[in-house]
Amino acid sequence: MVQHRYSLLLLIAxxxxxxxxxxxxxxxxxxxxxxxxxxxxxxxxSAAGSRYRWDVNIVGADAKAGNTYIKFNKASLLSGDSxxxxxxxxxxxxxxxxxxxxxxxxxxxxxxxxxxxxxxSIAFTWRVRASFNGGNIQTSTANFFSLNYPNPRMxxxxxxxxxxxxxxxxxxxxxxxxxxxxxxxxxxxxKGGITLKYLGGQAAGYAVGRDAAFVFxxxxxxxxxxxxxxxxxxxxxxxxxxxxxxxxxxxxxxxxGADIGVIYEWRxxxxxxxxxxxxxxxxxxxxxxxxxxxVSIVDIGGISYTKSLYAANLDMRVQDYDxxxxxKRKGESISQYARRMSTQFAHVDSDAGDKFYMNLPTSLNLMxxxxxxxxxxxxxxxxxxLLGGKKDDHKTNALTQLLVTPRYETQHLGxxxxxxxxxxxxxxxxxGLRAGPLVIGSASLFxxxxxxxxxxxxxxxxxxxxxxxxxxxxxxxxxxxIFRKRKNNLGCPSVP
Length: 496
Known about the structure:
Radius of gyration: 26 Å
Structural class: mainly beta
Largest sheet: 22 strands, antiparallel
Oligomer: single chain
Distance between the termini: 89 Å
Number of helices: 6
Low-confidence stretches: 1-22, 271-279, 470-496
Helix content: under 10%
Shape: globular
Mean pLDDT: 85
């Protein structure tokens, strides 16, 4: 019975704490004019008019995880001891809202951006990504499984929930980006970019319950009066030994994806004398805008998978059922557990087919940026998940989030102070640092340091290679480019 209890607690924790889902990658730093290759996933148009002739990412990673139901004592998480309820972890038992979880892992492998000239750029990005989210369950349901399960006071009471689910996907992604300044008239410049992606699905799955109502008669006997459970995962998972290395194959389960974006720049000082630095550094014109706004839609598309033979859509209605049979047994593989579950309940929608299509976490990204004096900037960006809702089981959904970031920028140093709030009302303050080739930060660093308990966290780090300096005359500004200026610049164009 103890193992049964902890199996269900692990299920709740898996849905509500260990899930991962995408929001903004490299938050705060991602809107910088020095972000280069790291800005491309947020808006591919940012590659055009790059600050650098070329930019190479050696390796980078961005990871996030969070939930709305359970907060953890930070000291307890580092102790290595077993966690006790209301001592080490604290459920939000009084909430009137549904409970959710989210997160993501985004590993940027060797990737590169190259500026063909000051108006056009190309980029190649190689990313290994995972996106998971779950929940949508009532707080009362979460309480039932997390508070002294099975609580004798809840015997012979109906526990009902309309919907609850878990969705996850891990994939390899090769992206090919082209960006261009397509209009430059007076004070106004427009840039556009597109990234086409070749996707390789590594693992995907979903488990969704609908219209559930059940009654525990005792610690081990349950009546399930209504409910449907749909679950599926890709066939490769049947042979999985638990390590990602044995699962990873970049060209399996091919799919197609795309990002598309546009950026407008307002340049009220764009005509006049040139910069002192124009002959020494690649494209200082990249940040002579006073203000800019951008919009992009990213992660359009998805991947088709072959279902495991043990995927099923089940009618869960049953009376006087042994609740122990619902648990995953020690040493039981995923395929063995799925097969056993599929033999215990009636199948419905048997013509659902042997394939399922998993959508990427498609999102709308918005950005605004203001140049205060060439060193101090303030930006605002938003990510809006477009695949929320309860109708589609075959997706992960981006976390809707708003981010405001004051920043200080020089050629080799950037300091970022992101302030964010997400759709669940969780507010954070963080820190980011760009020091030469190193980028590191967290959008929740300061706020989590100030809290005694946490229910979400993130971190990002990247190592890159960028050109430090070019010799005089190493780039061609093109027609009329030498007549660009910066505010308060008193330099004059050279006279032949």
